Amino acid sequence: MAVILIDTCVVTDLADDSSAWFEWSATTLERLDQHHSFIINPIIYSETSVGFEKIEEVEALFNHLGFEIKPIPKEALFLAGKAFLQYKRRKGEKKNVLPDFFIGAHAAVSGYQLMTRDKGRFSSYFPSIELIIPELGKLH
After folding, report:
1. Whose CB has fewer CB within 10 Å in the chain, the N or C terminal residue?
2. 116: left (phi over 0), alpha (psi -120 to 50) or beta
């Protein structure tokens, strides 16, 4: 069974059924469910927790979604640092991007597909990742 790492933006879509992207995220997961397992990592867990008051609420969400949390391998942590350094050398201005590099490196090193709405950085710095993204300009 293939493994798909679920990016934070997709988790937050699924946590709010009034989100503009809820329908795309939910139907894409349903379509993939029979042949894939879905995971998150500690970075995604942490980013998601920002929107909740209590840990029990976050735990309930991930239990409901059936997403298992997997640790990030050391090799991915190393790769994330190298990719972030490359980003900075290319004059990357944003300061809040390091979590994306952890997520991308985790998917790349582990051979996971990545379900996300944020194509840019992942495709630029981790071209080996198979991305599951919305069709350009379409809400599903």
Report:
1. N
2. beta
* Residue 140 within a domain: no
CA 139 to CA 78: how far, in whole Å?
A: 35
Residue 110 is part of which domain span? Answer: 2-132
Q: Report if residue 20 sits inside a domain.
A: yes
Query: What is the rounded average pLDDT of the residues 24-44?
Result: 96
Structural domain count, the chain: 1
112: domain CATH number is: 3.40.50.1010
> What CA–CA distance (Å, rounded) separates 50 from 46?
7
Distance CA 80, CA 125 (A): 9
Q: Dump pLDDT digits (tens) for 66-78.
A: 999 999 999 999 9
